Each structure stands twice: as structure tokens, then as C-alpha cells.
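Help! Submission page says 'invalid entity' but I think these are all valid:
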Amino acid sequence: MSRRGRSGASAAIPDAVVGLRTDAEQWLRWALLALYAGFLYAFVLAPMVQVAWRSLLDGEGGFVALANYLRYFRTPAIAASITNSLVVSSAAMVVTVVLAFVYAYALTRVRLPGRGAFRLLAMLPIFAPSLVQGIAFVYVFGNNGVFTRLTGVNIGVYGAKGIVMAEVFYCFPHAMLILVAALSAADARLYDAAATLGASRLRTFRTVTLPSVRYGVMSACFVVFTLVITDFGIPKVIGGKYSVMATEIYNQVIGQQNFTMGATVSVVLLVPALLAFLVDRLVQRRQYALVTSAARPLVPGGGGAARWALLVYCTAVAAAVVGIYAVIVTSSLVARWPYDFSPTLRHYTFDTIGGYTPLLNSVEVAALTAVAGTLITFGGAYLVERCRSPFNGALYMLSILPVSIPGMVLGLAYIFTFNAPDSPLNRLYGTLAILVVSNVVHYFTVPFLTATTALKQMDPEFESVGASMGVRFYRTVWRVTVPIALPAIVGIGMYFFLNAMVTLSAVVFLVAPGTELAAVAVLLLDDAGETAQATAMSVLIILIGLGVRTAHAVALRGVTRRTQAWRTGPSGPPARG
Amino acid sequence: MADPRPPAVALEGIAKKFGPVVALRDVSLTVAEGEFACFLGPSGCGKTTLLRIVAGLERQNAGVVRLAGRDVSRLPPGERSYGIVFQSYALFPNLTVARNVAYGLEARRAARARVAARVDELLDLVHLRAHRDRYPAQLSGGEQQRVALARALAPSPTLLLLDEPLSARDARVRVALRHEIKTLQRRLGLTTIMVTHDQEEALTMADRIVVMHDGAVEQIGTPQEIYDAPSSLFVARFVGHMNFLPATSLGPGESRVADLRLRHRPVAPDAGGAVTLAIRPEDVVLGPAAREAANRGPARVAALQFLGGYTRVTLELAGVPGRPIDCDVAAGALPEAGVKEGGEVVAALPPDRLRAYPGAPPAR
């Protein structure tokens, strides 16, 4: 070994790197990246551009610039939908987050009996289409509701009040999950310090608990706000004449066949959803490293008198959730709620909509969505995370964008894009495939981020090890990456399946004769006055969701025992420098 | 050397930048066959980047990488024939020890029986045959590292690359592993490049050390050369413990520190400017031996630090306040030197041990 001298350090260094010879493997990587970029372009970017473009055209396709927007803002009946949307979303956000915070606090910070059951019961709304909550409130507080009939008091459930009440129940589990996660990540040392310094319980709560969960609370707020403002089912069944933006799009498109106004409202609806998304991203970025590895987990305390108060509270909330579903189940099993309570199964024949086709379609679409969605999100996350290219930043942004696209907007965008005779993909229109695609895109972001996180937690040198020994990257993915990420992958599939079963907004414009879906059937049945059949369909949707979830839990336990044996060891993986 | 064979590794003018940040500037060096080379330097000096460029895991902006004479600059990693052990080991947690070791062999479509035989051979080599069916998480840190070594060696590479393989371990394990890696490397006669920021590790393991600083090579030499004759102030400070004294040059071999005129090894550049004198603690002479020596002066004992086999004496040279120098005295020699905390002694800085570098001393 010898030193060959060192010339001037300022010798110009070229900008380009010495490229590796392009082998078949590299071509494959690029081809896959191009395929993924093509998917995002065709099903995310191009449709959104279409919606924006159509909002600038008149009914005949002539360019009218912002005329549609001016008309929107100047027509009081339509413009009211903006303020209405903001009002109900803000109200539902505040109520949901406050209720869910207390609930989550009780589950994580107090040694409450039956914590597992409380958590499970609060999750029930996840398994039902949102409008089920609306139907239940109509059944109880509507003009012919049981409460109204028993007490003679009509609280006026149709309108903002009813929307907010139903949305609170619909959004409760989403907020609770985020807050439970935030409250679980506590550092006991801070509480010890507060205690030794003589801080009162209230002061400790204000100075330690609240600051440590503020990002979780913000995140919950954004999620609930977005869920409500983009939700279509609940305002549709319980809103009455109270128009919100999501229902306004539906009215313009389905009721008046006014596609350009639908596009205009869609673009306006994008704004708050996009804003919530951007602010949430900013907040999340600051959230890291609140709890360091040196933190000691907090053991839930006794809680004293507060414990009993919280127990009563949780029982009340859980009872309300259970009550809603009891109403739904009961109404589907009796002759005519609330007049005739004789038991019957006739609502389960679905005679007006041609039997079980919608439900079977839904299961098929949900299963396909789970498979395709998992493949695309995990594959996409892998490509963006592990295959270097100059476009990865843009691909990442496009991959997390869908969360800010309301389902109604996505559906409308797909009509514009795929129901055009000159579109190369117009054969998709009216098939189950387009429903699968719209579900995959609608629910893309969360699985994509889950997969990205799972990949980020993995040693980046796994691929390097494989590469150094001439092992093809896809082999290492199959042998190592996928098995390690299996729990995340199964979770992603589950997320897609459950959401595809219950979603309404993304598919309501896209179902066609022969591709009816269960959630849409619930809406149409309710619209047609066949409310008992609507609830019967809802019950079946919920049962399928619960069944699949349970099967998943059981299967996962078995799979974990066999394939994830390596996770249990006396010592953890080596510390990274 | 009249060796007809090309060097195992030859780097010619390697340069690398990440965006506007220059990570490596014009690095050229060679590693002979069978040699154990260490890239040594502080974090951010470019040593890991250089290793990854050799491996083909990072692509250089300029320069040529030759392995055994063959230009591999544009070859993908898998065609360069090396084995690599990462800092994290990157053992596949879902595969058993045996499957981990077999990983590179199975891709080559070798016959199953031959793969099994090779795996056993390697597990014997690292003394882990009993653990062949365990998962990495069930092994200790040292065992994990041996698995990573076995996996890297399984496809019979001609070059072994080690990226800070010992940095994540506790001190005791580290010493044992050092010995183990070195023994294995000797036995196999395998050309090896190890990246480390730990100068002690480099000194004990390497045949040659490449000291790197700020994206460039500072010095290349045997551990002895690097330790005895650091070629720059940076190397002097980075490798081993070193005392520094700010001085004014009076000529190529003489400088003034406060009132002391000190002779030292000649420093090439101009006389009259600021220079830094450097001497290792074990080279400072104390007590009776210093009384007749050159470069001597009175000193006050500021502190004593008992370190087992020797004692580190911290001295304040008369007239040089704020620049204490350390002096290591063997345990047995301490009484004879007459050193007491707060006491006065005579200290000498032998001229052939005292080195001078241009410029002011590094901040302490």
C-alpha cells in the first residue's frame, strides 16, 4: 500500500456520479417505478386535474373561467353549504375530541375494570357505514322515533343538530385511537418529578399531561374535521334541508345532472381538507422524540374518586354506542319499527334491490381492494423508500395526497376521467374494477405511510447485504422485507377491506347496474323508505366486518406463532450506531 | 517492491459529493493482497463513504476503483466479489443463523448439499455450529457479529469490508472481537479494509492505517509509523494521547516556549513563525533522569491520576501557565521520581521525541 500523493483539494468535482452499468435488475427497478408513477398519474393526478378543469367550463364545455365559482358564491342556497359544512365539522370536532379524550384518558391513565371491553365497544362504529349512525338517530329522535313518541318531545333531529350527534359517534373511534396512542406514550419520570415537586393533580395535568399529548389532540382534531366535512352518508339521511358541501355535490350531480357545479363545489371542498392535511403534516413533523428511549412507561394509577366518575362516564359512552347498534339490529329484526315489534326476518330478503348481489359485490370489491391496495401501497412505499431516483420526492407527495381528496370529489373525478369516450381507460367505467381502484386510491395514504414506517424501521443495509452478494433485490424483498413487515402488511389489508366494506362517498357515483354495493344499497333503501331493509343490510355489513376482523386476529395469532418466532428472543436486535 | 501482481485494491482520484457537500476529494491509495487496512478518522471524514464506494453501494463523482487490477468502477455490487459486515450487522432477523450464512450461496444456485457443507464449514470457523438453528435475536452481540462475518465470507470473497464492526459493543466484548477478527483474517490471508473512528482499534488490528480528515487522506502508514511519526497536527492529535505546547520557531530544529529554548526534530517550513510542539506522555522524563537531560525545566505537579500500571502526572511547566502537560510514569518508577501533588520536579522533553508542526496548537 502506498500513498499516491494528494493534489489540490479544490480540484473541481463533477456533478454527475460515475454510473453503474445498467443491468437487468436496474431496468426492472426503473420499470416498476415507472409503473407506480403511471398508476399515480392515471388515478390520482389526472382525475384531479380533470375536476379542476371542469369547474372552469360551462355545461357545453366552453371555457368560462371563474364564472361557476361566482355563481356558487352568489347563490345563497348553494353558498350556505360552505358555512354549514364548516359549522357542523367544527362542532363535531370539538365534541368528539373532548368526549374521546376523557374516554382515552380513562383507558390509559386509570386502572379501570374492563378496559379491553370498553375499548372494543367504542370501536364498533368503524365497522359500519357512516350513515348507519344517522339512521339510528332518526329511529330514536326522528319525528316517529321512540324517544319522540315516548316523551312527546321532538328535539328536531333533522339538520345540523342531528348531523353533529351522528358524526360524533361515527368519528369517536378514530379520535379515540389517536388519543389512546398519544396518552400511552407517557414518561413516568415526568410525573415522578412533578410529584416530588409537590404539584397538585390539576397542575400536573396542565403542565405534564396536556403538553405531552397536544400533538395527538391536534391530530385527532384534524382527522375528525376531515372525516366530517368529507362525509356524505350522515348529512344525506339526517340533514334534511340542511345542505352541506358533500350533499351539495351529490345534489348537483345526481339531482340536477349539473356536473360543472358539482366540480366547482368539489374544488372548494378540497380546500379545507387540503388545509387540514397540510397543517397536520406540519404538526406531525414536530412530534418525534417526545418520548425518548430512556423514558419509563407510566403505570396507570388508582385514580381515587375520579376513577369512579370515569367508570360511570365510560359506561355511559359505551352504552350509547351499544344502544345505537341495538337500535339498528332490533329495527332490522322487527316487523315495523317503532309500531310493530313482532320479530321477523323478512327485511333480510332484500326483495326491492334484487337480493344479495350488492352484498356479494361489496365483499368481492373489498377483498380485491385489500389485495390490490396492499400490493400497490407496500410496493410503492418500497420503491419510493429504497430505489433511488430523482422523482421519489414527487412520488412521495403524490402518494400521501389522496388522504386530502374527499370521496365525493374522487368519484366525480373518475366520472370525468373514465366516462369519456376518448379515455383509454373508459372500459373501466361500470365495472367492479373501477370501484376497487377508487377504494384503493381513496384509502391510499394511511397504508402507504404504515408501509413506509415499517420499511424505515428496517435496517437499510438488508438490501446492501443482498446486493453485495449478488442476490437480486426482489429476492431479498421476498425472503426478508416482506416476512419482517408481515404484521404491517396484514394490517394494511385489513384496513383496506374494512373501509371498502363501509365506504359510500367514493363509490356512490361509480356504481352501475350490476355493480351495486352494500353501502350504496343502504343509502338507496333508506331513500326509498325501506329503512328496515337498510338497517338489515347495515347489520350484515357490520357482521362481515366483525367476522373478518376476528378471523384475522385468530389467524394472525397462528401465523405469528409459526413465522414470527424470531421476534421473541432473550436479547433484542443489535443497537444501531 | 517488485510485486508483479496488481494490488488487491487500488483507488485512483476518488471524489464524492452529496449535493454541494464534498465528502471525498481526490483520494488515491492501494491495499496490498492479504493486508489488513484501516480507514481511520473522526465521524464525517468520509471513511464510510469511501468504503461504500469500494463496495459499489455508493457511486463516486470521479475516480477509478480497481480490485485485483480489474476496473470495477461501473460494476454493480454483486459483481465485485467482496464480503461486507455492516455496523448494524444487518442480520436477517427472520432467518436462522444457518439461513443467514447460506443467503449469498443460495442465490448462486449452488447444489443444496454443497451449500449445507459450506455453511457448516463457516459456522465451524466462527465457532457457532451449535447455534445454527437459532435466530439472530437469540444470540449475544458478539455471536451476532460472528454470524455476520460468516455470512460475508460464505461466497468466498477476495476482499472483506468491515464498517465499524465493533462500535456498537461494550468494551470487554470489543477487545475479544478485535482479536477474533484479526486471527481469522490472518488465517484466511484475506485482504481486509476496516472503517473505524477508534484509533486504538486501528492501532491494534491494522497492518496499515489510512488516517482520513475532511474528505482527504492525512497519512498512510503502519501503526508504529502513525503513532511515532504523525505527519500532521491532525494525526498527532487524533491518534494516541499527545501533549501540545505553543511555541515560536527559532530555526528548523529549535523553538522557544516561554523562557525555555527547546530543541526538537526539525520542522520543514519557515522559521520564526508559530509552531506547535508535540510529545507523548510516555516520552516526558521526570525526576533524577531529567536533571542532566536536554530540554529540561522546572515544573509543578498539578495532579496525579492513578491508572493501574502507570500514573498520569499533570505538570505545569514553569512560565507556561494554562498549558499543562501529561506525563506517564510507570507504577514502579513513581517513588524514585519523587512526585508529590503540589510538589516541584524537573521535567525533560527529549529532543528526539519532541516534534514540531507549523501553526498554533489545536484548541483543547
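Support: the input was valid. A stray whitespace character was the problem, and the output above is from the cleaned input. Chain B touches chain A through 68 residues (CB under 8 Å).
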